[in-house]
Request: fold
Amino acid sequence: MNKDHITQKELNKEALNKELLNKEPLNKSTVFLRQAEASDVDALEQLLNRCYRQAEGWTNEADLVGGIRTTKDELLAVINDPKHYVFIYPKTTTSERDGKETGELLGCIAVDIKDDVATNQRAGNQKAYIGMFAVLPELQGLGVGHQILQAAETFAQRHLQSNTQTPAQNPARLTMSILSHRPELLAYYQRRGYELNGNSMPFPVDGNNGEPKRQDLELLELEKLVS
Reply:
């Protein structure tokens, strides 16, 4: 490509890729998370709406859903919910945990510990829902998402099983929802141990989650047992 025609976005992507590739392999030491705070809402809103609704990267939903993915008020409510944990991967000046944060986010994920743990235990069904999973489009395909998802799963598993006396007999059940008509995304999660459990629902048409672009759009539930 002629350098005169390289866009600023392409330059930013190249810089970010070099920054992370210089620290290979990507692992839990190089991809680090912290719990989101109210001051992160603006950056979190920008990241999620870009990753889900803009036609960038391979995980976006732009062909299936229009409109915004979330709002600042919704995110603030989630962050303030004591049973809902939002984790972010902040960009720092050194790309290390101890570097100064720039205010930009490279990724995020949320773990929603379901209500009434006692009931879940009796049913042998401790649940945590994983959502708001996003990685900056420039960094997709470098292993960042794998590390973020793995960290969230480990957190959910430990959190749930700390509430039971017999974790081996009462495995944690991790659930998530994905859009139908996304075979490549389904395959991604299946490679990581998630399977369709038969539960589904039509995509909400209340306008709070964006506007579906096809009438047969559904949310499919996946689950994974961990012990």
Summary: Residues 68 and 93 are 30 Å apart (CA to CA).
